[in-house]
Write a structure and sequence with these properties.
By secondary structure, this protein is mostly helical. It contains 10 helices and 5 strands; from the N terminus they run αααααβββαααββαα. α7 packs across α8. It is globular, with a radius of gyration of 25 Å.
């Protein structure tokens, strides 16, 4: 089997996109050796799952040839391979569902996108209470447990009248590293999947677009950041409402269900002008 020639542009792109990930690893104490071992596992797992010839699982030798990982390591890593869960952890998906109901469903919102403050207890607020909100999504989880966790994460706050206020228009924990890491894992993975599909497959591309400028003032960047925060959130809320309506109206059989991710992001950093090298003096 002849391996394809590596495009220099791809290697350069991979080196560039790895920089923020390496920055994260160095800040959190992940060394090169530990990441290299982790990367071996990923190479072997992807080769085994996605590069089969027909229905037959690839041999250790073929995986070694595809990945460059030594056959002895391939055998060891295949023995310890575990199924990777693609969806968000249940505590995260439950929280996202709960926020969506609060944002979109009566009697918990004044109108879609305008959540009402809720009495903490059903004995005070009846159907318009945090107890009732949690019970509408699940009867297996106590509302007090959810509220304590949301207060810790900064998703909700309490006022003097014992009412619960939603502090975010999506389940975005302000505190809690594990919860943030779960979204990092999910969002960056799906964004990368869309980009890789568009780069390697011939089918209809996934929507993946961006706007970029390189000569803006700090004040202009601040204005744009606020605009994305407000208007971009409204766009995502609109997609969320549409998805909720479609999910309820058009229920597919279990074997035909698909998941989606729709994202929007903003990033800014200093962009100093390139330093030009003065021409060398020539001697005659």
């Amino acid at each position: 089997m002849q391996l394809p020639t590596l495009p220099p542009s791809l290697l350069s792109a991979l080196q560039h996109v790895m920089r923020p990930l390496v920055r994260l690893m160095l800040k959190k104490g992940v060394t090169y050796n530990s990441f290299a071992e982790l990367l071996k596992e990923v190479f072997v797992d992807v080769a085994e799952r996605e590069f089969r010839l027909g229905d037959k699982p690839p041999t250790d030798s073929r995986i070694s040839l595809l990945t460059g990982v030594h056959r002895k390591d391939v055998r060891r890593l295949r023995a310890k391979a575990t199924e990777q869960e693609a969806s968000l952890p249940r505590v995260i998906s439950f929280g996202a569902h709960l926020v969506s109901v609060w944002l979109n469903n009566s009697p918990f919102c004044e109108k879609p996108g305008s959540p009402l403050p809720l009495a903490r207890l059903a004995s005070n607020g009846g159907e318009c209470s945090f107890d009732s909100l949690v019970a509408q999504v699940s009867t297996d989880i106590r509302a007090r447990v959810v509220l304590d966790e949301w207060l810790r994460l900064g998703i909700a706050r309490m006022d003097e009248q014992d009412q619960v206020h939603l502090e975010t228009m999506a389940f975005i924990p302000q505190r809690g590293f594990d919860e943030k890491a779960a979204y990092f894992r999910h969002n960056l993975h799906d964004h990368a999947c869309a980009a890789v599909f568009n780069l390697t497959e011939a089918g209809e591309p996934f929507f993946e677009r961006s706007v970029h400028y390189d000569s803006l003032s700090p004040a202009a960047v601040s204005q744009l950041r606020e605009a994305v925060k407000v208007e971009g959130m409204q766009v995502l809320i609109g997609f969320n409402q549409l998805a909720a309506e479609l999910e309820e109206r058009d229920v597919p059989p279990p074997e035909a269900r698909q998941r989606i991710t729709i994202g929007l992001y903003f990033y800014a950093e200093p962009n100093p002008p390139a330093i030009s090298t003065p021409p060398k003096a020539s001697s005659s």
